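Predict structure. Chain length: 238.
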Amino acid sequence: MERVESRKLFWLVDGHALRRASLCVFLMPWAHKRRLDLRQFADPAEAEGGEVPEICLLSTGSRSLRDEGVRRSLDGIASAAGDVPVILMPERMDEEDVRDALHLGVRGLLPTSIEPRVAIAALDLVLAGGCYFPVEVPAGQPFPAPSPGPATGLRETPLAAEGLDMPLTDRQNEVLRSLGAGASNKEIARQLSISEATVKIHVRHLMRKYGVSNRTQVALLAMRKTAEGTGLRSPRRA
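Prediction complete.
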């Protein structure tokens, strides 16, 4: 019997059909690039049994996390998909919403006021196993435990405003640009015609330069630089 490889899924849950359709138009190119099959639902109960997504975006509109409907949607996602990373997209939020999101283990908050490029970078970060919160986390509130894998949960860091202006070699800059685009070490090696071992060496050097502890933090810095619209320095060509 021929084995059919299952596709990785990305769920979009939004009870408003027109808003859901608009989000699909925005998210489809990203999902295609990440080789994710985008599935849209008004309610997570509509999902087919046994299908578990890699990531889920729940659009909550003007409702806060204290709304019973939002809590039911989160419970429905957990019931259908288990411990899938969930990102909330609210139209507005306050400090209490951030606190509630952290308490519930939500992986990120993407307010509708966020820049599109930042939203895409945040999706990449959460897909890699990290967390994204665009406002200062209330004191004493820990981030959710990271997803299994090499990435860790991250909070907003002042390094985004400091470290990326330091001088880099052309090769380090090329690696950094690729990290910011969400490329894996294997993809970077193929793009730059170098070995994966060499890519890992460059990544370690970048981690030391920026004073961070893992690859995902370096990638996040590069994503932020791109999201600011200033980009990263293009390498010199002979």
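Summary: The mean pLDDT is 77.
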